[in-house]
Design a protein that fits this description.
The protein starts with a helix and ends in a 5-residue tail after the last helix. It is built from 8 helices and 7 strands; from the N terminus they run H-H-E-E-E-H-E-H-E-H-H-H-E-E-H. It has 246 residues and is of the alpha/beta class. The strands form 2 sheets. The protein has a 5-stranded mixed β-sheet. It has a two-stranded antiparallel ribbon with strand order 1-2.
C-alpha cells in the first residue's frame, strides 16, 4: 500500500510536470507585461508628456466680461490656445506701468519667435472706472496688438470673484473702490493725496500661464528678473504637451 502511494507521489513530481508548470507561470507573466506595454504606448501616444511637465493648478471657472471694444469675452474664448494673464488698472500709480511694459516686451518676443498659439490678457482690477474706452486708450498707449493682447473689464463683483476665487490672487474689495470714488468727489486734492487714495486698490503683481484646458500651469512675479525668458521656456513646454491640438 505504501509503495503505491510513493509511486503516485513520484509521478506528480515528474520533471516534465514541473517544466509545464514553469512555462504556464512564464506565459502569465509575459501576457501581463504585454498588456502593460500596450497601455503605456497608448497613453504616450494620446497624451504626450514632457519630462519637465508643468504642474497643474486650479481650473479657471466660467466668467462673462467684456474686452476693450465692448464685445463679450467668456472663458470659452480661451479655448484652443495658451494664455498669459496679468492684472492692472489704467490709473495705477504703482506697479501697473511696469507690469504692462513687461507684457508689451513679451508680446514683442512672441511676435519675433512666431509663437502664434500664445495670447495675452490684462484684467482690470478697477472695473468701475476702466470702461472699454479707457482700456482701448491704455492698449494703444502700450502698443498692444489687439489680435493677440486683450484687455478685460466688467461688473465689479464678477471681476473680483474671478480674480480672488478663480485665480486665487489678491484684489481690492468694494470698500476700497468706494474710498477712491469718495476721495475724488470731495473737491480738489493734491497729487500726493490722490496717490494715497489709489494705493488703496490692492491687487496682485502676478503673471499667470493658462493652458488650452483653462488650467493654471504657472505663476510668475511681474518684476522678477528674467521674467520673459521664464515665461517663454514654460510656453515651449506647453506647446510640446499640446502639440496635437495647437
Amino acid at each position: 500500500m505504501n509503495l503505491q502511494t510513493d509511486s503516485a507521489n513520484s509521478a506528480s513530481f515528474h520533471p516534465l510536470n514541473l517544466l509545464r508548470t514553469i512555462w504556464k507561470i512564464l506565459l502569465v507573466i509575459l501576457l501581463g507585461m504585454s498588456t502593460i506595454l500596450v497601455w503605456y504606448l497608448y497613453q504616450t501616444k494620446s497624451e504626450p508628456r514632457s519630462p519637465d511637465r508643468l504642474p497643474v493648478h486650479q481650473t479657471i471657472p466660467d466668467f462673462q466680461l467684456v474686452n476693450q471694444i465692448g464685445r463679450p469675452f467668456v472663458r470659452r474664448d480661451l479655448s484652443g490656445g495658451i494664455w498669459v494673464a496679468n492684472f492692472v488698472f489704467t490709473r495705477c500709480l504703482g506697479v501697473c506701468p511696469l507690469l504692462s511694459t513687461q507684457m508689451s516686451k513679451l508680446q514683442t518676443q512672441l511676435d519675433e519667435t512666431n509663437r502664434t498659439s500664445v495670447r495675452l490678457l490684462s484684467f482690470s482690477v478697477d472695473p468701475e472706472w476702466d470702461t472699454p474706452e479707457r482700456l482701448s486708450e491704455y492698449a494703444e498707449k502700450h502698443r498692444a496688438d489687439l489680435h493677440r493682447w486683450f484687455f478685460l473689464t466688467g461688473e465689479q463683483e464678477a471681476v473680483q470673484q474671478l480674480v480672488t476665487q478663480g485665480f486665487q490672487l489678491s484684489m481690492m474689495n468694494r470698500q476700497a473702490v468706494q474710498a477712491v470714488q469718495e476721495a475724488q468727489s470731495e473737491g480738489p486734492h493734491t497729487h500726493h493725496s490722490q496717490q494715497q487714495s489709489l494705493e488703496q486698490i490692492v491687487h496682485s503683481d502676478r503673471f499667470v500661464l493658462i493652458d488650452p484646458e483653462f488650467r493654471i500651469r504657472a505663476y510668475y512675479r511681474g518684476n522678477e528678473e528674467g521674467l520673459i525668458d521664464h515665461v517663454l521656456h514654460d510656453v515651449d513646454l506647453l506647446e510640446l504637451e499640446y502639440e496635437l491640438v495647437l
